Amino acid sequence: MVIGELTQETDVVVIGGGPGGYVAAIRAADLGLDVTLIEEREKLGGVCLIEGCIPSKTLIHTVELANAMREGEKIGLSFKGDVQIDIEKLRAYTQEVVDSLTGGVKTLVEKRGVDVIHGRATFTSNNKVHIEGAGNVEFKYAIIATGSRINELPTGYDLPLWTSYHGVNIPEIPKSLLVVGGGYIGLELGFVYAGLGSKVTMVEFMPNLLAGADQDLVKVVVKHAEKRFERIMTGSKVQEVKQGKGDNYDVTVETADGKTETLNFDRVLVSIGRKPNTDNIGLEHTDVEVGDRGLIVVNEEGRTSVKNIFAIGDVTPGPALAHKASREGKVVAEVIAKHPAAFDNRAIPAVVFTDPEISWTGITEREAKEKGITVNVGRFPLSALGRAKSLGQTDGFVKVISDPETHLILGVAIVGPSASELIAEGTLAIEMGATLEDLMSTIHPHPTLSESLMEAAEVAAGEPVHILPRKKK
Q1: Helices in 12-52 by DSSP H: which ranges?
Q2: Is 446 a residue of the active site?
Q3: Residue closest to 237 by CA, chosen among 181, 289, 293
Q4: Those residues with Cβ within 8 angstroms of residue 433's Cβ, 6 or more apart along the chain or in another chain
Q5: Taking the model in full, what pTM does it have?
Q6: Proportion of the chain in helix, strand, coil states, percent, rounded to 5
Q7: Greatest CA span in the chain, whole angstroms?
Q8: CA-CA distance, 362 to 346, in Å (whole number)?
Q9: Pairing mode, if any, of strands 249-254 and 260-265?
Q10: Is the C or the N end of the chain the one with fewer CB within 10 Å?
Q11: How far is it, in rounded angstroms, from Cα 200 to Cα 63?
């Protein structure tokens, strides 16, 4: 610490301006607290807004439009030649979307009277942080919302390979692309680049893609991926990446059968997960307890082992999702303001923006089996849904998971068009303690995709209308 450095005081210091941090700052300010928000980047919004969710979904929308144009011939539409993609305009449009949203967040925070400091913050005690180049802040309460970062590439990957950060910034559209990692980020970017014209190969160490999701959902997506990708290699491992003869890479892969293959790609994108930003914020100078995988231990109020320090988002246990962080941000702000609040949500929806989309909320079939929970499952195929037929998108289904005795809805999962939008109804049903009868008796507009949830509930209750009932054992 430099002698004479400025020290300011605040009620609440929020470290991190992502979807958890800026929401917490806004809510705390609205509740009458003096708030200081510290963000290392020049812009607010965090990874999700600047280099993750928003730019990737903008690219996914572009690819969906292009695919829709290509498939127009099936319903009588025709175009001269293939769809042409102007990469410069696409980059500019994506950046415009990001800039608009980051600017909006900045305005919202400023209008709330939140003091924003840009710089790197580290704790020096349980009630003080130091901001590099900007002095110190003493606080009554702190909210850690520092998010996560891309996992470092393992030894041997010391070449200029792409990460998800490079992927969403579209440095180029390579003729051939290897995606290492078959999780949701790898799959989404694989679909993006396949749609932009790259020949995509995917290598995944686990025996299945999207290992955390129910595989009946994943199979539908894999069927589409197999048509778009050059090759999908599950149960396989990248052993070595070397510079090729030109501006390309020779990649040695150990396949599921134990053999090795050396393949050549123009670019290699590595998507092997993320790690929480808890190892570089000075927690060793506090009494905050850090648990497995660098995650901060918190209670349902978001409070750490230090009474006046809270943590939210990717630095805490649970799914690393922006909407979870935002909800947690509101909770901790209300707790600090002495309002009754707790993160006691029964369901956190997850979405994978593939083609078709996958979403799920509440308990999954896999989790129920692992925990020995008996459940009743009702599946309704989109091939029997009028709206899906009219859209020409009938691959997929909706399933409703319920308690066989009480009929309480425990989980909902969807694979198909607009799954990302439809899953909110399932999440609300779980939060409200709805039963199959509640979902069945709720009038859904016709013809819509939302009817599929009602139909799946009818199947689960043994009262299907638009498909034949299950044979009794």
Answers
A1: 21-30, 46-51
A2: yes
A3: 181
A4: 408
A5: 0.93
A6: 35, 25, 40
A7: 81
A8: 7
A9: antiparallel
A10: C
A11: 14
Delineate the domains of the chain, giving CATH numbers in brackets. 7-150+275-336 (3.50.50.60), 164-272 (3.50.50.60), 350-460 (3.30.390.30)
- Tens-digit pLDDT string for the chain (473 aa): 344 568 899 999 999 999 999 999 999 999 999 999 999 999 999 999 998 999 999 999 999 999 888 888 888 888 777 788 899 999 999 999 999 999 999 999 999 999 999 999 999 999 999 998 889 999 999 999 999 998 876 656 668 899 999 999 999 999 999 999 999 999 999 999 999 999 999 999 999 999 989 999 999 999 999 999 999 999 999 998 999 988 999 999 999 999 999 999 999 999 988 999 999 999 999 999 999 899 999 999 999 999 999 999 999 999 999 999 999 999 999 999 999 999 999 999 999 999 999 999 999 999 999 999 999 999 999 999 999 999 999 999 999 999 999 999 999 999 999 999 999 999 999 999 999 999 999 999 999 999 999 999 999 999 999 999 877 66
3-state secondary structure 288-304: CCECHHHCECCCCCCEC
- In whole angstroms, what is the distance from residue 250 CA to residue 267 CA? 10
Q: Of 166, 407, 446, 466, which residue is the catalytic one? A: 446
CA distance linking residue 349 with residue 424, whole number of Å? 7
| Cβ-count burial 79-116 (b if 16+ within 10 Å, e if not) | eeeeeeeeeeebeeebeebbeebbeebbebbeebebbb
Contact 213, 360 (CB under 8 A): yes
Under 8 Å between Cβ of 329 and 338: no
